[in-house]
Design a protein that fits this description.
Blueprint: E1 2-4, H1 7-16, E2 21-25, H2 31-41, E3 47-51, H3 71-80, E4 85-87, H4 91-94, H5 113-116, H6 120-135, E5 139-143, H7 147-159, E6 165-169, H8 189-194, H9 197-210, H10 216-229, E7 233-240, E8 254-262, E9 265-273
Parallel strand pairs: 1-4, 2-3, 2-5, 3-4, 5-6
Antiparallel strand pairs: 7-8, 8-9
Helix pairs in contact: 6-7, 9-10
The chain binds pantoate (PAF).
Pantoate (PAF) binds next to strand 2 and helix 6.
Length: 281
């Protein structure tokens, strides 16, 4: 695997690998990231991952400083997964001058996580666009665990006419249901035991919707109640349509999204509900 530590080294690699598949990450890799590399490898294109903890997408008081940086282990995992190259620029490489031009996201960026992390999606989309311009991949893979992020990246790619196919990877879960995330490492032993409850609350709503219930507010309120009872500080639990518009149509597909804090750790998760097929007559 080639290690590219600067945009210059990336440009040299790109000269020999014009068409490639790209897996952008912030490092501290886990099986979820590896599954994205696997997905990218299935395209048959050389696969390049990036590792860059992007200061632009962290707000004041968030975990930019303490975000785990585990470059050596990350490279071992990428190599074992058959990744062909890793691009690991410095903050100075990505932002040689203070960034003055940004991707202006749509209103969706102010909802759900955006309501609690102002500026997050603007910073995320800006770095993704910069990485896309540097790597110029034919294909890029992102996880569905960050459902809202994926929706915004898809929207940006389409509306900015970027010639990149976006692949979506399923969420990888621990045996008890907890979605794998770099932030899980912040959890204490007790918090780790409690953490799968977020997924199980969302799954309960999904099962209720699958059985035909459409009392969205009541279902959200029940989940909030359960999480509060177990000392979570909840940002939101929200039933939406797959494009993240409000859930109003009966019988359509849904996604249930949640974000909540356990102690000092903010966890997010979501569960998709496919469209309920009309009963055969
Ligand atoms: O999902 C992430 O790891 C980050 O938000 C991304 C897409 C690599 C941009 O920094």
């Amino acid at each position: 695997m080639d290690t590219l530590n600067s945009p210059r080294e990336l440009a040299v690699w790109k000269a020999a690998h014009a068409r490639c598949a790209f897996v952008p990450t912030m490092g501290n890799l886990h099986a979820g990231h590896v599954s994205l590399v696997d997905k990218a490898r299935l395209t048959g294109l050389p696969v390049i991952a990036s590792i860059f903890v992007n200061p632009l997408q962290f707000g004041a008081g968030e975990d930019f400083e303490r975000y785990p940086r585990t470059f050596e282990q990350d490279c071992e995992q990428l190599k074992a997964a058959g990744c062909h190259a890793v691009f690991a620029p410095s903050v100075e490489d990505m932002y040689p001058q203070p960034q003055a031009y940004f991707v202006e996201p749509p209103e969706l960026a102010n909802e759900l996580c955006g309501q609690y992390r102002p500026g997050h999606f603007r910073g995320m989309l800006t770095v993704v666009l910069k990485l896309f311009n540097m790597v110029q991949p034919a294909i890029a893979a992102f996880g569905k665990k960050d459902y809202q992020q994926l929706a915004l990246i898809r929207g940006m790619t389409a509306q900015m006419n970027l010639p990149i196919e976006i692949l979506a990877g399923e969420t990888t879960r621990a045996e008890d249901g907890l979605a794998l995330s770099s932030r899980n490492g912040y959890l204490s032993t007790l918090e780790r035991k409690e953490a799968p409850r977020l997924y199980h609350c969302l799954k309960q709503i999904a099962d209720a919707l699958s059985s035909g219930r459409t009392d969205f507010e009541e279902l959200e309120t029940q989940a909030l109640g359960t999480l509060y009872q177990h000392n979570w500080k909840v940002d939101y639990v929200s039933i939406r349509r797959p494009d993240l518009a409000p859930a109003i149509n009966e019988g359509s597909a849904f996604v249930i999204l949640g974000a909540a804090h356990l102690g000092n750790t903010r966890l997010i998760d979501n569960v998709e509900v496919p469209a309920i097929k009309a009963a055969a007559k």
